[in-house]
Amino acid sequence: MAKKVLVISTSMRNNANSDILADEFIKGAIAGGSDAQKITLKDKKIAFCKGCLSCAHTKKCVIDDDVTEIFEKIKEVDVVVWATPVYYYAMSGQMKTLIDRLNPLYVSDYKFRDVYLIATAAEPDESAINGTIKGVEGWIECLSHTRLKGVIKAVGVSSPNEVKQHQNYLKEAYQTGLNI
Asked: How far apart are CA 154 and CA 43, in angstroms?
């Protein structure tokens, strides 16, 4: 059965390395028979969570911005894939803001069970991505039916398009998408 996959690209940069890997993941997923689409946060309006917790009762956020549409898409897919650059050993601010705003998922019906992470870092040591993994695991911990199914760690890439010089990362993203 074909899976519905949503890739959320969180970089604000054109030709971002994490976004390039997100596209490779999607190519692999489609080649494997999945229905895959990407949302890019670059042009989205996403306000900070107010911490009012109204969503715990209403199953929706009181803030009216682009998160409403993203939230509805996330609820309906089988697989969620986060693609982020790593800044100061953590996920991008845009990704963290969106995760905070997805609080209504905790009390909603959602289909996805598998979560993947694509993370790119300028630092050459894979441990630079550990803080990002920990952040995603914290989100998953609050979603009782989900698990972190895979992590693509692309390190030593900093400049736009640089990941294209690393065929191993491109292949890993494609293969991971293919095998979901």
From this structure: 24
